[in-house]
């Protein structure tokens, strides 16, 4: 079967690799139809690592995907051959202490698609996943919407974990795919006002159309001052979706005493810093979001019932042969890209 191999920093090749087969009773063989390019994929593409997770070349990237079921193990009952399924890329052991505590997303033995040391990704013709990671979507959401269910499920988990009151005010720093997913989830959850910040003009316009109460560019104005003017008491929750020291600092400034800083963005540096005096005096709660935790089905339901719209985030489409072109586009934030999808 064909696969896209990352062979070095910013180097990709399409090559033949050994075919996948179903070996476990709960295994599902999927023919991959669509793959989304995620910011974490781009980190590996540009630098070969995220923190301590270092790529050993050649490596197959990708974890946002939808596929058609080609074969199933003898104990599989929830999906059948021919169905289209969205994929939760996290495979937990269900045996360790974290799993027993209901924290499968921080499983000590977690295997995540397209993660060095854990497993190859989905930029290939076929993958095998456990039945529990495969969610039928035929007649409910489209293949492209199914791809967006992965980042949307992270936003669902983040919003759920922050427990923002129905009449609460929020700020989202960064209007990339995760920031926009947080916005549509908050809107579905009846947030009062939601302020957003973003440097890229096309993404600012997209956030405005998606229902943000106010969108500001930190390169052109003091966003802390402006949001503070509109919300003098401070916002209840800040969702940091840019992975920057600057936005983390802004988040602390924007929060009311007792507020919550939810860190979703992945910083490229090994360490970030907090102004402990402000953090302590405001009694700020810092919440780190580690992917999604059993929220894929909820994400699918939100799209299927019409509570959220994710179609507007898909801005570019590429063929298998154009994969590297797609990665370069996303890495350079070029041509108004938000979410690029590979048609396999």
Description of the molecule:
The protein folds into two domains: 2-138 and 312-343, Alpha-Beta Complex (Quinone Oxidoreductase, Chain A, domain 1); 153-288, NAD(P)-binding Rossmann-like Domain (Rossmann fold, 3-Layer(aba) Sandwich). The chain has helices at residues 39-47, 97-100, 143-162, 177-188, 201-209, 223-230, 245-254, 276-281, 296-304, 323-331, and strands at residues 2-8, 11-16, 27-36, 49-50, 53-54, 64-72, 84-87, 90-91, 111-112, 126-130, 134-136, 169-173, 193-197, 214-216, 235-240, 255-263, 285-288, 314-319, 339-343. Strands 3, 6, 7, 10, 11, 18 and 19 form a seven-stranded mixed beta sheet that branches. It has a six-stranded parallel beta sheet with strand order 14-13-12-15-16-17, with helices on both faces. The chain contains ten helices and 19 strands. It is 28% helix and 28% strand. Helix 3 (143-162) crosses helix 4 (177-188) and helix 3 crosses helix 9. It has 344 residues and is α/β, with parallel strands linked by helices. The protein is globular. The termini are close together.
Set down the secondary structure blueprint.
Layout: E1 2-8, E2 11-16, E3 27-36, H1 39-47, E4 49-50, E5 53-54, E6 64-72, E7 84-87, E8 90-91, H2 97-100, E9 111-112, E10 126-130, E11 134-136, H3 143-162, E12 169-173, H4 177-188, E13 193-197, H5 201-209, E14 214-216, H6 223-230, E15 235-240, H7 245-254, E16 255-263, H8 276-281, E17 285-288, H9 296-304, E18 314-319, H10 323-331, E19 339-343
Parallel strand pairs: 12-13, 12-15, 13-14, 15-16, 16-17, 18-19
Antiparallel strand pairs: 1-2, 3-6, 3-10, 3-19, 4-5, 6-7, 7-11, 8-9
